[in-house]
Amino acid sequence: MPFKILATSDIHLGKSSTGVRGDINETASRHTWKRIVDLAIASQVDILALAGDLIDRDDRYFEAIGQLQTGFSRLEEAGIEVIMIAGNHDFDVTTEIMAGDRFSNVTLLGANGAWEVIRRQKENHTVQFAGWSFPSQHYIQNPSKDFNLSGIDSRYPAIGLLHADVGNSESRYAPVDLASLTALPLNAWILGHVHKPELLHRDPLVLYPGSPHALSAKEQGPHGPVMLTVSEAGDIAITPYPLSPIRYGSIKIDVTGANSEAEIRSGVTTAIHGRTAELKNELETVSYMVWDVILTGKHPKIREVEGWLAKITETDTGEEGRTRVQVRKIHNEIQPAVTNLRELAEEPSPAGRLAETILALEEDRTTPFLEEMIARWKKVAQNTGSAFPYQPLLSATPATVEKGDQQAKEMILHECNRLLSELLAQQEK
Fold it and tell me: Radius of gyration (Cα) for the chain, nearest Å?
């Protein structure tokens, strides 16, 4: 009989989904934790595997720990074992939870940054679990290099639990390269730390199940735990369970040719509900479908369009079945309705300078004016980031610098389009 393992990570109990207007209970990550426990019991799983960051560091000692312990107690009553590791957020809290052997069904693997291997048997079927836990909030070494191969028995399937940052050698959160994981004699790796679900490798399986509860608009698409069905031969079938009551998504809407407020608002709401209807079969467990709207195309009145759509983000746009549909934010990528942009760029005028900059950004080239604007943006961003509240977010890595350049270009392009539209509109008056 196969082993049934329900796996997840990064629950972050104590946090709630951002940008959602609605039932505070459903927007809280504890709601999805309860759903996970319900699923484990209803499916009669053998193991619930948790790959770290179960509790959010900011709210760990109150609601978060109580909710986690309630879930452990329910699983214990159902005869379900929990095998978990500690991440960077809960490295210290997990040891406190385990103190005193309160939960006989919960095993913490790899405490204090030391790899640990255990075996679990079901009838004649044995599965091994290897795990490593964060010993501190930050860990800059690659933990896979310390893996002890002597603990693995090649006769049985083996599953690794690791909270790590794959592919980012500069990370402060256990940087690991994919090759070092796939080289080890394990059948699967269940990873924590990255909130977006991602399959990194098929054989052996290397998987970020992601946060089971969508916490921010950066975490788009379905979220939930995954069921691993492990055969005696070591074959692993994966079944996702999208349990998150919150789902984020983005939708691009071309407003070219829409001349009135009523026409644009109608077009936007029609597109939102049309896309939501397409996802109907995926939204059975979703209470709030939260959209970011990206406006594209060409229009002569960019600022007016922004004003026309401002109120859409203030109210629900309706329902699709039991799912409420909301707009979190509108991103303006509209370009001015200019047919002679290249000709305009030759003019020695403010409009010409803006047109020249827009063309340079679209064609991925630079100009002295654009270089100056990027430098100014980065200086302002650096001054803002060095303020005390933002210091924990700072990371002086090449990836961060490159991302900063891209953010600067995106903002400059947006502002150039908006300003050029206004200048041209003024000239028509």
Answer: 25
